[in-house]
User: Fold these one by one.
Assistant:
Number 1:
Amino acid sequence: MGDIILTMKDIDKSFPGVHALDHVNFEVRKGEVHALMGENGAGKSTLMKVLTGIYTKDSGSIIFEGKEVEFHNTREAQDAGIVIVHQELNMLGHLTVAQNIFIGREFKKGIRIDDKKMNEEAAKLFERLHIDIDPTETMSNLTVGKQQMCEIAKAISHEAKVIIFDEPSAALTESEIEELFKIIRDLRKQQLGIVYISHRMDEIKVITDRVTVMRDGGYVGTLITNECTKDDIINMMVGRVIYEDPKTESAVPKNAPVVLKVEHLNAGRMVQDVSFELRKGEILGFSGLMGAGRTETARAIFGADPKTGGNIYINGEKVEINTPQDAVKCGIGYLSEDRKRFGIVVQKSVAENSTMASMENFIKGLFINKAKENKVAQEYVESLATKTPGVDQLVVNLSGGNQQKVVIAKWLIRNCDILIFDEPTRGIDVGAKNEIYKLMNRLAEEGKSIIMISSEMTEILRMSDRIVVMCEGRKTGEIDISEASQEIIMNMATREI
Amino acid sequence: MEKIKQNPIVKKIGINRIVLCIVLVLMYAIFCMLSDKFVGVQRIMSALNYAYFLGFLSLGVTFVIATGGIDFSIGPVMFCSALISGYCLTSYGVPLVFSLLISVLVGFLFGVFNGYFVAYWTVPPFIISMASMNIAKGLASVFTKTQSVSWPQSADANGWYRSFIKVGNFPVGLVIFLVFAVLCSILLNQTKAGRYILSLGSNKEAVRLSGVNIKKWEMLAYVICGTLVGIAAIFYVAAYTTVQPGYGDQYNNEAIAGCVMGGTSMAGGLASISGTVIGVFIIALLQEGILALGFSKDYQLIITGIIVIVAVYADVVTRRRKN
């Protein structure tokens, strides 16, 4: 580790009703990977937004390369050498890799754009990073992992001195993560300062040098990664030891009735002849690599996308589900992996979002019974431990995990018996994660049936009673938890058909 | 300023609406100072005449904009309603009560037409409303054989509909308009329909995946709009008597300006009926003031254009700041 390159001192920031950052300290040295950890809503993103000029701080100081700085937008931060690689990729799919990397500062030949030079420069960048990508390839043809590499290359091309990775591994497969780590180690060798935001404890231990933990907008402390244990970090984050015990055998009785039966479901290329059964009180894990067709299967069952064939039976009766409306009538609820797009209505309050799927229970005459609505929403805020100043708070002001809980509340209030949880803990920190796990176990015990789609192997093995594995749009395996192991599932998920 | 913003009363009314009220009062004061002709009841009554029909247009289009859509057909549809129903009254001898109902019906049908194509065929609202604007103009011309239509004067046998606007010097129209505004506000904020209209304006896909029939509710917004436009036609003829085919476009912008100025977001999901009401009064007063100061109507077009730009820009800026 080299000299300090960036210091954030006593950073304070308030939003109406929320003290988002309470005198936070943070520093990055040259040639270190510094993890920034904390539960959802702890203030990690806010701190990074203050750093890169998206938010203005109320007080405190930022010292970069020995000088006090204040950026007014990301462009200024970029020019100074501080770059964020976002979790959501900001790439234009129809342009080539090189065009994306040099967007906004294209090389010109007269008034024409010099694509040849851009391709050469991009190739040089990739060489420096030891990445194997063709600069002339169209961006949308690349996998998510490769796209992320391009995003990193773009950051480097800005002469970055500090790079912030905001949950870079969330959408990557195991091998892509390995590749990402190789690049990060390379950058570290080149004396860059790296901030690594992630919820995955294992990665933190592997890749980072130091860990700074935040909680509820405050600074908790900084540890040397080698000298601390996972539990140390977790305790700093939440102040309690967590995680449900993993299941070793199915908790579902042998004679539990089948509540959902899917037969020969087809929907485009991504869902081909999928059949499975879901029993009462069961958590059925859906495992597979990205693009295996799990989300597509869920959306087809839920009627969100059209299906081209197949039958669905609920409690033994054949049902026609062509729209989400039909699905909800059949008692199916769907929790999307992308809650911002598919889950919540940001300009509406917690209460209004909670009752979105069950309005008819909150109508008195012509009007909405707001008193009842607020009361019921409040009950669920309490039982799910949603962190919000009140039920009239707009959901846009809540953190990711708490938004997720609002969506769960929406389906619980609708009293759905079959719940499809699509990546329920993506982008959610350990503390909130465990709460969601507990909640799922509780729901299963109460007799709800859950389909849980997850890309995290540990999550699948921890939660499922039974596991369905998919690969390239087909079901490639089904296995009881008592027989399941990481290797067996991985084998099924990559099996050639 | 921060302190004022945190005041509970100010929060309840909304800083935006308070500013608009101040603008309204200031504008009136300035017009009075610039022209002594402006002082007095007559001018206010005249400005109100303009505010009524524009107000109904604006209330209507507020629902459409709340869904994230737009309707450029409201002005011409209002004229179409007034022309068809007026022609029925004067040339076919349809009783007045039925003529008024026809007016509302024509607006309603255009609402159904627009809403159906937007919601069920997913045609962009911009395109469909441009098309129905032309249809409305053409239809009115064909129906009236390109003749202008004059509705009865107050002294005529069928003139009682004019008391919708005023009886003596009492502004009945204001009372009716405000009652409708309150009804719209209740509809938008306290019923299932309003809840879904606003929600789908904010995030249509999330509402759909909640098992809500979004098509129905999106279409409803256009139907509400069309119906209010049909009512606007009645208030237009009650104030100005004569309608010519082929016009009406300029009221689109004025109605949308009133609505956006009042704090309804062009991106959908946010709407304020009370804001729309104040916005409409400002536009109506502006129109009256410009005429009173001896400028031609063309200046009003320019100013309304600028207002739309400023209001939309302000909306974009506040949203950016929130994000």
Number 2:
Amino acid sequence: MHIPDGILPVSVALSGYAAAGGMTWLSLNRINKKFKNPRELIPRASLLTAAFFVASLIHIPVPPTSVHLILSGLMGVILGWFAFPAILVGLFFQAVMFQHGGLTTMGINACLMGIPALLAGALFRTRRYFNAESKVTNGLLAFLGSFLAMGLGALTAALLLIYTIPAKLDVAAERAAIITLAGAHLPVALLEGVFTALVVLFLLRVKPELLEMEEK
Amino acid sequence: MIASYSTAIPESNLLSRWEVRHKLVGLLALIFSFSFIRELWLLPLVILVSVVIYRMSQLSLAYYWSRIRLPGLFLLMLALMLPFGAGSTVLARVGPLALKLEGSLSVLLIAVKFLCIFSLVLVLFAGTPLQKMVGALRSLGLPALLAEMLIFTNRYIYQLLTDLRQTQVAAGLRGFKGRSVKALKPLAYIVGTLLVRSHNQSERVFQAMTLRGYGEESLVLRAEQVRTFDRLALVATLLLAAGLVFLQFFFFPTS
Amino acid sequence: MSSVLSVMDLAYGYPGQAAVLKAISFKVRRGERVGLIGPNGAGKTTLFLLICGIVSAESGNIEISGCPVVKGRFNPTVGMVFQHTADQLICPTVREDIAFGPQNMNLPVAEVAGNVDRAAGATGITPLLDRVPHQLSSGEQRLVALAGVLAMQPELMILDEPTADLDMRYRRRLVGMLKGMDQKTMLTASHDLEFILEVCTRVIVLDQGVIQADGEPAKVMANRCLMEEHGLELPHSLTAAWHRHGTETDCS
């Protein structure tokens, strides 16, 4: 669900940048309000961003093949408002290091991952209304959040791609394409959900502070 | 497979010497004008501009090929699907599938734009060290927090990558294969461990940095001297970009 | 006695660099505890990676208990404790971490539990079994990492710089424990020469990719000229012996 260069019309790409700019402004605004000295948090946010970047390179087995996870839901859970800047930074390095390109679409891609990430984080933090220490609460919220985050991102990406392709698709082909893309992403979204839940349960036992950084 | 942020273009090259802010704005304008194109007749022009700039950069074709392989897969998928799915004019029939004109043409359009934009992205990154790139972005309005995150993240990605590989080797020596569904839980542990380790390290990094005065000075940005050449090159690329947009807009307004 | 490890004409070099190992040959017999010493960059860690089958040799071969080492194939007969324990400990509890290897060997559940208990007992960390490895002290982490390898009951155990991050107390504990494992075959690299002297039954000096000396630790390591020539020094406890021999000669 990484939209490459050259497919989307310029208007969509530029709107993506505008939206990403707005989201960045909102995130930084929230960060500045929330923390007295946000610069103190930069080393932590950056190291975790690097860790997420590296983690997304791990091959996750889905026999007979393997996939890479995006972990945007997990980023929302751990980084809170820092998730959006972190995703932008991650996309930048993806463009640079793999030279995926994706420069014109960086804005739209940041929104496709970042907004669902923030939602997944917010959903996870509703755990304070339940039993915040229980494994079931944490696991379930983490699963739901990242499953929905991945699903939402992939679905939006699919719709964007289908409706902006230069040639007109007929209705049947359109429906087939949407079903194919959605169907292909359903297992991946499930995997993201399960994996995120497993990591969150690990952190709950090993280093619960990592799940509480946004709650202070 | 990961390529480090390297500057493959020689320092003496014209594109390396082009002041980064001007280069960034100029090449980005061109990249966006490429993605604005919807008319097939303009594609040769797009290709010509890309080829000329890529040749000027002294980057080799082998370099292009080594970088395009991965992102090219997406293109390949599209090229296999779209010609059969989109459009109404049937060109040929391959078994139950019908190869359609409109779909094929849109693949052509997308592919050329993709490949040409890719060549400019390579030129942009391969001729600019990260520190300078971030400095330029900062002076073009990138928030300080993002700029610092870029520098910091870059510093630790390689170290964490080494840590991760080492952990995977250690797990492998204890019989972990990571090829079946059962591997999901240990992999989640490995990712969790990576997060915990980087969090712990960030605390040490922060303490060490505070001792050396972090929090006082901001990212030092030295403005580079802007020469006439930098401005001329910028004007030239902006005119090119505007020209492409103009051609698309005024001569083919309907396409 | 049969040899557990046999290295023959082993050579290795990283691409574009001078050879790290040049035609190394040695055998390790069952029950031997071999110390590997030499300056940084002598090729110790590379040798370990080769023995574990993480990288493959340019030429020569390695056999463990008569079976050739194949790159990338899981081989539970050799276990390695990494220099940085953080690279090795990944599970949320000590118990799970020690069980990680035996589980991957597909041992029956009861046997896994038995191995975990024995390994924890041998390393004296039974009280830590339900703790989180990441929250332990570096000394405790070292013991957990060791137990994780012991639980797989390897025929050959490799320890890379086992005392690097230990305080005196944990160092003594480790020394006592390793000396007590009479029947274990061990290969350990360390800059802690006193540790080698105390624990090992044999020492190999590796420098510039070549075995420079091989023999009884008290003899090899008492040779001041040899030691200094290879960037090492006389262990403190041997300087007295050196003085007694009255060989206060110039090495040059």
Number 3:
Amino acid sequence: MSPFLFWLFASLTVIFGAAVVINRNPVASALSLVASFLGLAALFMSLDAYFVGIIQVLVYAGAVMVLFLFIVMLLNLQAEERRRINWLAAAGGITVAVILLVQIAVTIGRFEAARQAFPPLARSTDDVWNIGALLFSNYNLPFQIVGVLVLVATIGVVLLSKREPR
Amino acid sequence: MNSFLPWIILLAPLVSAALITLFTLRWKTLSSSISIAAVLVSFTCSCLIFAHRTATAAEFTWINISGAFQVPLGLTLDQLSRTMVVLVSGIGAAIHIYSLGYMRDDEGKSRYFAALSLFMFAMLGIVLANNFVMLFIFWELVGFTSYVLIGHWFYRDAAADAANKAFITTRIGDFGFMIGILMLWMAAGSVVFTEMAPRMATLAGHPPFLTIVALLIFCGAVGKSAQFPLHVWLPDAMEGPTPISALIHAATMVAAGVYMLVRVAFVIQASHTALLIIAWIGTITAVMAALIATQQNDIKRILAYSTLSQLGYMVMAVGLASSDAAMFHLFTHAFFKALLFLAAGSVIVMLHHEQDIWKMGGLSRKLPITFITFVVGALALIGCPPFSGFFSKDAILALAYERNTPIFFLALFTAFLTAFYVIRLLVIVFFGEPRSNIARESRESPPVMTVPLIVLSLLATLGGFAFFARNFLALPVEKEIAIIVPALAIVALIVGGGLAIALYRNRLTEPVKDLELLRHKFYFDEAYSWLIYWTQELLARVSAFVDRWIIDAGAVGGSSRGTWGIGALLRLVQVGNLQGYVFLFGLGVVAVIYFAVFR
Amino acid sequence: MVTLGDYLLVSGVLFSIGFAGVMLRRNLIIILMSLELMLNAANLSLVAFSRFRVDSSGLPNYNAQVFVFFIITVAAAEVAVGLAILVALFRARQTTDVKDISSLKF
């Protein structure tokens, strides 16, 4: 992928990711997160991971974020008012995050392989088929368990949202 | 001759002291009998030893640290020791008998005799010891028994304080003494006197060391023999019973200092600087004490200051490098000073414990025997021929004339002063008219007190003559003494005596009232107590500061507040704040990454 | 030329931003969204590595992509349950401020 496109989508992702954290209005945050996910999907595509990219859009941007927006509307969450900022806590938090970032950056910098270009792929890969084959052969058991997990989650959600009987 | 006989001299009083203290405190007569018996045993054995010149004593090894440090328990029996042992036990015996009369009605009679026996043990120990360590032990013991005896009437504040003062002051001197002993041992490798003397030659090339060692050893004598500046305890020690003043503070304990200096003359005479300092300290003490004595009104105080003055003479003689002259004067002084104190005691007890001379008077008629013996002692003290004091004091004056002229003139001046205050004492106490009812109604003392007085007066008369003294001491060499010395001495005597008679005859109160400096003993006591007060004040302030600010506020308060503070800080970790927990979580992750990747 | 390191860096930045969001925002919804951001950053890393490890037959290592598949699934389930809890909490306390739910004290 051309570097220009990579950096375009990468900065999109990052900027909208920052917007999630910075915005006071939860709706604006949710929509920024959607945009961030779309950018991520583009990045996945650029890595020849087409299946994962589509799944990202369908499940994450399409289902999970919709869920978030539903809840925001349901609870009628307003934009937060301005309030006093605890500068000490803020400074501490930002410091830890920055240190973490620095550590990651330095580690990446030391990682020799990170400077190499991606190896070329064979003819066009059929990643849906390949992932599916892996999923149903090597990872069959985890696949089934995840299915059960989703079922349990569904039941749990239903239970949790029940109103107390009057 | 049995080599244990000398040990009997030393141990008999110890046995007596132990017996009395442990068993017979309740029975006063028995206690006093045991004590007197012990001292008579010591005296008898001393005479036997004296007669047999070749007697030796058994020696035991006490400490032996791999040959490097050996302290034997041994007795030295050269002529000096024999003489001293006879002197000490003889005068001690006289005083024991005298005490029977003086302390007749005292309720503490048993413990008095126990302490007296212990003192005899200690004093004989000093005189007989053959090494420095043993000497020092007995030295300290003598100080202790002196404390006990001065404070015999401990329920009187003045007596208790005087006992403390004596002990503490002599202790200061003993500190220097101890350091001196250690330095000597370090230099000479042994503490036994006879072994050390030849080794002193190896130190000949180190004059500063010799001077310092000599002066440190002299410190002990300064304390024990009450020289300037540690003289302040002796006058106060007169709070003790008069026989004690006679024995300890006239004849024996204070003489221990001079004896010790003579014993270690090989150390002191090795350094000319030290000798000079010693001579001057002796002179200063002699003059100062004589000046103070002229203004005192307590009969025992006058005698105490005269003791100080005579001790100054002895130390002066030591400093002028003549041990013989010093010992001669010590010898004669023991007799006439003990005599004077006992006679004074006789006066005091017959006047129902009155000690102020201005309440006495005309006692020559009331207490004749006491009077005569007192006069003998007084004439000996002022150096009037033919009494013993004349010969010994003359020897010292001749020495000074030969070797150091300023000291000679000061010594002569002191002789003048001595005559002055002694005749003053005689005139006020014994002549004229009685000044109080007590004096008017007094009568002579019982024989148990007058007999020792008579014996001592005989010794005070005869003691100076060569035919008598030669048996005991090495007399100072009689060279061509310029006749001017005894002549000047006699002139000083007559002038002083005459002045005293003229001033004090038939007086009712002290005529010379303006000499405040002398009356207050040159303000030494005041100066010392000011010094001690300010030293303690400073120390107390520093300690209070350290205690209040460094210990209380700093260590105790600091640690408690610090712990509280750290606890308060740590408590913030668990406030239930979710995001706080996340923060700590993040910190942990950062730390783990740091240690995993970057180390 | 875009290298592996660039993708990893983007992933790291996204992760830090998400972490900062979890620490600093008070609204629970925003916190949950930041959590999602962190998860996605991890996904990006995995996919980048999957593309980087090409085996002999010229195919990327699909194990990582299977892993990403599972992460997305589980994250979706987790979001559902998380939001349900949030709703229940809001009904009980009428607040979504994280400072008001501080019962987890000493």
